[in-house]
Design goal:
The chain contains 11 helices and 22 strands. By secondary structure, the chain is of the alpha/beta class.
């Protein structure tokens, strides 16, 4: 039996798809092209309306290309909105998606209560080889219940992978030639292996002297966790990259309070200033939501001005999407879609300015990148620096997936160009 798996959404979903694929292959199924698959699986995000549109679009494409295949929606969307099948044959929740073989002869909806969810097991020998960057899920779940966010309903309460399993996985990935691992999860700041009383800071300390890929990157992390001790750990590390992705969400204290975020813009200013003072050239990115209920033009301008002056590198900008079941779903003061789009455009333009300004700081400097195999414009290969700058160099096949010293030369058509140091 053949299967095809399509993943949408966050990096945690990418990990989940690795595990699902490994489980299916261990059970004797074969990965194939979508047109040849007997089952088509969508490991589906449900964070926004756009995520749901992606599900519908993919199911329609699947039906056109392979009308005989059984279509399965699995994961976050199935967990939260099992009634929204969009024509799929089978809906599986978070626990069930790791046991797909138990449901291949069934149709309908199979979803466990979110309070019953546990962290999935993964055999390290099923992890893929040959990738430049790999996303290792060390934690799942969140209990913050921010007013706009459906994730706690989709992922359940926080639970963490034991330290022993993480070290085994990292050693396996290093042996398979993977050069960079991104530690990811839903709320990795809540990581805790209770059996060994190890939190995230303790774990990062252990990784420094353990067998791991040469680079370790940390995914999005709660700004309240980024205290002086955490910054010092990153600054002193020989493995952990100097990049920070902060889910800010708003630069307006009024909106942050309505969102249920537990900090203000002054706190964010303090931590970003501390990062830059302690780690020169650190790459700081931020998530921002625009058009939250009650965000008038004045409150949006507060966010814009804050981001304009912040010592950051890039922005990920999202229009607010009301999600049924969240506290914000019934809030008054909805923002017109036209206003959301205009605000997204403004912040995306600011993002371009921020990126170019950050790139210019590194012109003429030497940095280490890990080139990837994909070709750009038929001429270049791309690799990322420790602070997450994409550098494009002339294509050379023998450089793929190696740590390479490059000299950054110039910016051309928005691309940061470099040359390999001899």
């Amino acid at each position: 039996m053949n299967f095809f798996i399509h993943t949408t959404g966050c990096k945690a979903n990418q990990w989940d798809s690795y595990v699902i694929s490994g489980n299916l292959e261990s059970a004797g199924l074969t990965r194939s092209a979508m047109s040849l698959a007997d089952i088509i699986i969508i490991d589906a995000c449900t964070l926004t309306d756009g995520a749901e549109r992606d599900i519908r679009r993919f199911i329609n494409q699947s039906r056109r290309e392979n009308e005989k295949a059984k279509i399965i929606i699995a994961g976050c969307h199935g967990q939260v909105y099992p009634e929204r099948s969009f024509g799929a044959d089978l809906i599986l929740g978070q626990a069930e998606k790791f046991r797909i073989t138990d449901f291949l002869d069934k149709k309908g909806v199979f979803v466990s209560e979110r309070t019953q969810l546990s962290l999935e097991k993964c055999a390290v020998d099923t992890l893929p080889a040959g990738k430049t960057r790999f996303f290792l899920k060390i934690q799942d779940g969140c209990d913050k219940f921010c007013s706009y966010c459906v994730v706690p309903f989709a992922r359940g309460k926080p639970r963490s992978r034991p330290v022993r399993e993480i070290l085994e996985a990292l050693a396996s990935l290093e042996k398979k030639g993977i050069k960079e691992v991104v530690l990811t999860g839903i709320e990795i700041a809540s990581y805790r292996d209770r059996a060994s009383n190890t939190d995230l800071k303790n774990l990062l300390g252990l990784l420094e002297t353990s067998v791991t890929p040469e680079r370790i990157r940390i995914s999005s992390i709660d700004p309240l966790y980024i205290d002086g001790e955490f910054v010092e750990i990153i600054a002193d590390s020989k493995k952990i990259t100097e990049s920070f992705h902060i889910p800010l969400q708003s630069g307006s204290d009024t909106i942050l309070e309505k969102m249920g975020r537990r900090y203000n813009h002054a706190y964010i200013n303090d931590i970003t200033t501390n990062i830059q003072n302690r780690i020169r050239g650190a790459g700081i990115g931020m998530d921002v939501i625009v058009g939250f209920p009650g965000e008038d033009e004045g409150l949006f301008e507060e966010t814009y001005r804050f981001l304009e002056s912040a010592p950051i590198y890039y922005l990920h900008v999202f229009p607010y999407a009301p999600r049924q079941g969240t506290a914000a779903f019934s809030m008054a003061g909805g923002v017109p879609e036209s206003a959301k789009k205009q605000r997204v455009r403004r912040l995306k333009a600011l993002d371009v300015e921020k990126r170019l300004a950050f790139y210019r700081q590194f012109a003429g400097k030497e940095e280490v990148i890990i080139p990837e195999g994909k070709l750009y414009k038929g001429l270049f290969m791309r690799g990322y620096t420790g602070n997450y700058i994409p550098v494009y160099i002339p294509y050379q096949k023998n450089l793929e997936n190696k740590l390479v010293m490059v000299k950054i030369k110039e910016i051309e058509e928005g691309l940061l160009l470099g040359e390999v140091k001899k």
